[in-house]
């Protein structure tokens, strides 16, 4: 398959954002994924979120590994630099990129094979290092490009398209991310744009490691009866924790947080995420309760979606390393090279 | 007859790992250097924290032979576990210094060496009650005794102790006391000095005494590296640690405490090279330090960096392989895995520093080369260079020197409408232009991938663009020939048809071997290769000699293989001289091998070099 450019004509009255961009300015090449692939819906949600936040596309760096999900950065944010790295190793490349230039926005796109199998270690370490990024796993529970093998997130007892039963326990990346100290943890469903777009917007504004596990049915290999990651199954078992609305603002708003009301949570940069609490005993700021809730929902055969955990006083890798406020890739000789005089002093100490 | 020698002998200390002997032994070595006499010390240590045997060898060499010599003139035998081996290693006529607190049967001694027994344990037990003090001061006491035996100026040792404990002044007097206990005992009980003597000279000059890894780490600072991602592995660990140490001193804002560098100890070697690739893709100068097993793990990313054309610097401090091999012994056995790292058709640029001075110089230069060529650059150190202190020329820096960032298209150039294609060969040298992410709102962005693409970085599976790209990569490699450090020729005093090619840490031993061979009437021209791809000067050198010895420290003649593969040489023309037991190659070994092989070389009709 070769690169396919998307035609650029559009309706003259198309909506503009604060930068004067249309949502077409956030598009990429034409997708070569299967028609109906959940990943394309996620790409669409990413574009919508970036458009609504008025993010300059060229200030976003999009990085991925290998696999169907990792192909998707080609299909959104065409003015962004993209990096399709090697299988499962996107997190390290993104970490390095982030170290080089802390001023860009980093979007890591991965899949369940990419992040839960070969890249499980790199996923874990990027999360625990608090790399400032949005890490989206497009989770379809199957290897699509190699035509239908189970992945590490496939549920035990679920069936492959060929009718084979999966005997292994699944890895729940959301639980893992919580345990590793991620400060923004969410799960969503590619078919629920109302939930996914505000989640991505909030994640983009979050400082630190923001993780979104997005269930994304594979129409070719994992959308059949017996699959627990099919469109029908997920729609039938989706237990939304909260209904979401994202507000960009600079003044943190505090609100009571009672059942049936909304809660505004101030993010680090001053923007705010609004939650509608559906469960009386659910609190997005309690990591332990979030873990407990996930177990309970899972045990009941449901899939918890929504914002699962948020730490509003989060930090990132640069803060922990105490690096210069300027991007390291912009430092010049005077900042970097100690010079001949310093070298002479070093020489003197080595005699 | 006891050996008699002034400023030309080898002392070897046999100790127990973890006994605190390292600093005492270094004190001994530095004292000789401070007397103006060149030294070449080497650690021989186990892959172990405590308990196993360790040795420290000091070659005292007024003639400036800085390679390992082989053999031991004075053995300081402080490890009963290795007694037999240590005693056997002494040259006939040499000296054995040992702790005589417990009687040693005559059968355990040699009659052809001079035996000097000093009751060290009895002395420390009498002088000190604390077990740790007994251990540490025993080491200082034997340094004091050796100072008397070898005529080392005690004042020089005292000064060094003062420098060592500067800021911890309470420790100075007790160490001086221990030193004098040993010195005075030796003066009172032995015929001092013995046949081996140190005499003040003026042969050190302005040279510095430093480990190769520290030098390379400092080179990375001066090369402008801002991102270091690494995973601990012997013998490269101290390189990353040195980089951090120098950065703390030299790259930390004194007012804010902010750091103009980032160091991450990655979870493994795969992540460390991944971070380097990500950082370099984003315009930072980035490196990792590793050894052979780490290089093995990095193969996939190295292929990506080569094909996607991303700068990266790798310091490979080679050790004995394959597999875990000999983790604390030296070899030059990563040449081929680095030259051709990753699957598919790949070729990488290698630099071969000889000593800490070049480790610094090449370390800094590697970052310019990586940016200029947009490809991984390997600085091929080894344990002998990296983890030993060497006398070498002082580090030098030209303040007018600017970082060569290579072909990076700027915002203004893009704004001016300059055509940008990530993989366009605009200048015909095989090197395309790149942009840093975030440069321009509408121009210059591209997609980096390890799969094939056209000149504008657009994914394609067509054959012609793939071939076009691969051919351009070869053109770039050709360009690299003129950019890597050129080989250096040491021409024989008289015309000869015998040539020797060598590289890296073999250099000092080779220099000495050339002189020894010349004295034997075997004249050789020696070419020290300092970079791969090989410049035309290497091919010409081989063509100009009937027979060329390739001296290296591995089993399979890896540089020789590379020469055959890349330069189209007749295999019969290159004769391998190989040393690979994990110890540094010696001039004695090279001399013996070449003398033996040169004597049977016939002089057939001149072979034509294959083109």
Automatic annotation (TrEMBL), chain A:
Protein name: 2-oxoacid:ferredoxin oxidoreductase subunit beta
A Pfam family that the UniProt record links to this protein: TPP_enzyme_C
SUPFAM superfamilies per UniProt: Thiamin diphosphate-binding fold (THDP-binding)
InterPro entries in the record: 2-oxoacid:Fd_oxidoreductase, THDP-binding, TPP_enzyme_TPP-bd
GO biological process: cellular respiration; small molecule metabolic process
Statement: the UniProt record of this protein carries the keyword Ubl conjugation: no
CDD domains: TPP_OGFOR (cd03375)
Molecular function per GO: oxidoreductase activity, acting on the aldehyde or oxo group of donors, iron-sulfur protein as acceptor; thiamine pyrophosphate binding
Domain Thiamine pyrophosphate enzyme TPP-binding, residue spans: 66-214
TrEMBL record, chain B:
InterPro entries according to UniProt: 2-oxoacid/accept_OxRdtase_asu (IPR022367), Pyruvate:ferred/Flavod_OxRd (IPR050722), Pyrv/ketoisovalerate_OxRed_cat (IPR019752), Pyrv_Fd/Flavodoxin_OxRdtase_N (IPR002880), Pyrv_flavodox_OxRed_cen (IPR002869), THDP-binding (IPR029061), Transketo_C/PFOR_II (IPR009014)
Keyword Ligase: no
Residue ranges of coiled coil: none
The Pyruvate flavodoxin/ferredoxin oxidoreductase pyrimidine binding domain, residue ranges: 219-386
Origin: domain of life: Bacteria
GO BP field: response to oxidative stress
Pfam families xrefs: POR, POR_N
Pyruvate/ketoisovalerate oxidoreductase catalytic domain location: 18-183
Keywords: Oxidoreductase
One GO MF term attached to the UniProt entry: oxidoreductase activity, acting on the aldehyde or oxo group of donors
Stated name of the protein: 2-oxoacid:acceptor oxidoreductase subunit alpha
């Amino acid at each position: 398959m070769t690169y396919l450019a998307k035609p650029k004509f559009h309706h003259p009255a198309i909506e503009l954002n604060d930068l004067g961009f249309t949502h077409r300015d956030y598009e990429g090449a034409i997708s070569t994924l299967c028609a109906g692939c959940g990943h394309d819906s996620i790409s669409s949600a990413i574009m919508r979120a970036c458009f609504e936040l008025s993010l300059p596309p060229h200030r976003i760096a999009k990085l991925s590994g290998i696999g169907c999900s990792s192909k998707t950065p080609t299909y959104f944010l065409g003015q962004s630099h993209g990096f399709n790295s090697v299988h499962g190793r996107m997190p390290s490349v993104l970490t390095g990129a982030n170290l080089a230039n802390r001023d860009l926005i980093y979007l890591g796109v991965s899949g369940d094979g990419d992040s839960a199998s070969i890249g499980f270690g790199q996923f874990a370490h990027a999360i625990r290092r608090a790399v400032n990024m949005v890490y989206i796993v497009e989770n379809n529970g199957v290897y699509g490009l190699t035509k239908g093998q189970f992945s590490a997130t496939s549920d035990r007892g679920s069936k492959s398209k060929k009718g084979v039963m999966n005997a292994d326990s699944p890895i729940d990346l959301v639980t893992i991310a919580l345990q590793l100290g991620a400060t923004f943890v969410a799960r969503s469903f590619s078919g629920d744009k109302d939930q996914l777009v505000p989640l991505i917007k909030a994640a983009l504004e979050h400082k630190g490691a923001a993780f979104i596990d997005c269930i994304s049915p594979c129409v070719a290999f994992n959308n059949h009866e017996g699959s627990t990651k099919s469109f029908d199954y997920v729609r039938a078992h989706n237990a939304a924790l909260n209904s979401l609305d994202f507000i960009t603002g600079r003044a943190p708003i505090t609100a009571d947080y009672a059942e049936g009301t909304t809660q505004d949570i101030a993010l680090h940069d001053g923007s705010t995420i609004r939650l509608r609490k559906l469960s009386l005993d659910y609190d997005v700021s309690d990591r332990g309760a979030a873990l407990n809730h996930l177990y309970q929902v899972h045990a009941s055969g449901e899939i918890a979606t929504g914002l699962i955990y948020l730490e509003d006083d989060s930090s990132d890798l640069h803060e922990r390393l105490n690096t210069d406020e300027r991007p390291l890739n912009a430092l010049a000789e005077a900042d970097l090279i100690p010079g001949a005089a310093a070298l002479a002093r070093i020489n003197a100490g080595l005699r | 007859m006891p050996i008699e020698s002034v400023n030309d002998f080898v002392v070897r200390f046999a100790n127990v790992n973890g006994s605190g002997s390292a600093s005492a032994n270094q004190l001994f070595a530095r004292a000789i250097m401070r007397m103006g006499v060149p030294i070449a010390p080497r650690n021989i240590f186990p892959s172990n924290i405590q308990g196993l045997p360790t040795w420290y060898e000091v070659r005292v060499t007024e003639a400036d032979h800085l390679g390992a010599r082989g053999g031991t003139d004075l053995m300081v035998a402080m490890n009963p576990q290795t007694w037999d081996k240590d005693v056997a290693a002494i040259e006939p006529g040499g000296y054995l210094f040992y702790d005589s607190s417990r009687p040693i049967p005559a059968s355990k001694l040699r009659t052809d060496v001079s035996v000097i027994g000093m009751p060290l344990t009895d002395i420390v037990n009498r002088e000190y009650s604390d077990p740790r003090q007994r251990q540490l001061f025993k080491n200082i006491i034997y340094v004091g005794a050796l100072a008397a035996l070898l005529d080392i100026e005690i004042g020089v040792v005292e000064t060094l102790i003062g420098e060592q404990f500067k800021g911890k002044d309470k420790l100075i007097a007790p160490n001086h006391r221990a030193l004098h206990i040993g010195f005075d005992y030796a003066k009172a009980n032995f015929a001092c000095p013995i046949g081996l003597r140190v005499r003040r000279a003026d042969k050190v000059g302005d040279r510095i005494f430093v480990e190769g890894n520290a030098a390379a780490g400092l080179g990375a600072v001066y090369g402008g590296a801002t991102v270091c991602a690494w995973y601990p592995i012997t013998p490269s660990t101290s390189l990353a640690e040195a980089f951090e140490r120098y950065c703390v001193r030299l790259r930390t804002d004194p007012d804010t405490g902010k750091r103009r560098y980032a160091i991450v100890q990655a979870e493994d070697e795969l992540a460390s090279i991944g971070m380097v690739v990500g950082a370099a893709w984003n315009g930072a100068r980035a490196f990792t330090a590793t050894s052979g097993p780490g290089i093995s793990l990095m193969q996939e990313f190295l292929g990506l960096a080569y094909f996607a054309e991303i700068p990266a610097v790798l310091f490979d401090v080679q050790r004995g392989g394959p597999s875990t091999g000999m983790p604390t012994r030296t070899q030059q056995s990563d040449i081929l895995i680095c030259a051709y790292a990753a699957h598919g058709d790949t070729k990488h640029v290698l630099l071969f520093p000889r000593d800490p001075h070049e480790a610094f110089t090449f370390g800094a230069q590697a970052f310019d080369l990586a940016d200029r060529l947009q490809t991984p650059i390997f600085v091929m150190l080894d344990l002998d260079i990296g983890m030993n202190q060497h006398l070498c020329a002082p580090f030098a820096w030209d303040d007018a020197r600017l970082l060569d960032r290579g072909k990076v298209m700027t915002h203004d150039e893009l704004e001016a409408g300059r055509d940008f294609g990530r993989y366009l060969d605009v200048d015909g040298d095989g090197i395309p232009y790149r942009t840093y992410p975030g440069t321009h709102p509408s121009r210059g962005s591209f997609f980096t991938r390890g799969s094939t693409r056209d000149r504008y970085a657009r994914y394609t599976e067509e054959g012609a663009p793939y071939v076009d790209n691969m051919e351009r990569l070869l053109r770039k490699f050709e360009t690299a020939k003129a950019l890597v450090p050129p080989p250096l020729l040491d021409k024989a005093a008289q015309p000869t048809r015998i040539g020797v090619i060598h590289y890296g840490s073999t250099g000092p031993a080779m220099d000495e071997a050339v002189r020894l061979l010349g004295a034997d009437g075997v004249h050789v021209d020696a070419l020290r290769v300092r970079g791969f791809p090989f410049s035309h000067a290497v091919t010409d050198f081989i063509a100009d000699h009937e027979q060329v010895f390739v001296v290296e420290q591995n089993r399979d003649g890896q540089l020789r293989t590379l020469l055959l593969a890349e330069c189209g040489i007749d295999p019969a023309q290159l004769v391998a001289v190989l040393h690979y037991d994990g110890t540094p190659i010696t001039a004695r070994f090279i001399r013996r091998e070449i003398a033996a092989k040169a004597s049977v070389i016939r002089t057939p009709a001149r072979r034509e070099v294959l083109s």
